[in-house]
Amino acid sequence: MNKIKCSICEEFDESGDEFFTIAGKPACTGCWEDARESASTLVKFNPDGEIEEFYFDQDFGDFEGGDLPEPIKAVKWVNTDGWRGYTNYEIVPGFEEIADGWVTGWPDETTKEKAELGDYYEQLKSGDLIPPVALYWVFGRTSNLFSTASSIYVRTDDKDKLAAWLEEVNGGLDEFSKKFN
Ligand SMILES: [Zn+2]
Fold it and tell me: What is the pLDDT of residue 108?
């Protein structure tokens, strides 16, 4: 019987399953499952129309033995009040955040701003919109079950090209980031 001491919760696990963190340390089944459940999602929209999805977590990387997906450098839980909080990200140099905010449930017609943001997402997902540069759209857990923290990143070098494109699509970068507020 394999008995491991979890490097995250420090409990002993005798299930025989073996999980490892990206640092190569053993982890228990419970911590792995919790991490899967609260994992962040990154959707990368490529300029060639390809769409890639990654699930990731600070301890387990991409859950397949790989590191955190670009441009994520670290995942942090920010406590706002007691157990309330949201997921925040540190990003690698050379990238920047162009928008961030909350996405509440699925957008509906009653909240026009959010519906428009949801429209962008749906159109990118369906391929109706293809960005001229890679767009990294990240969704993270919050303490509110119905609310997801969402951030969008691009390479700093790509920002001008993206802004010009957004101008063409609908009102430009400022209008776009306002849709989150
Ligand atoms: Zn554990």
Answer: 47
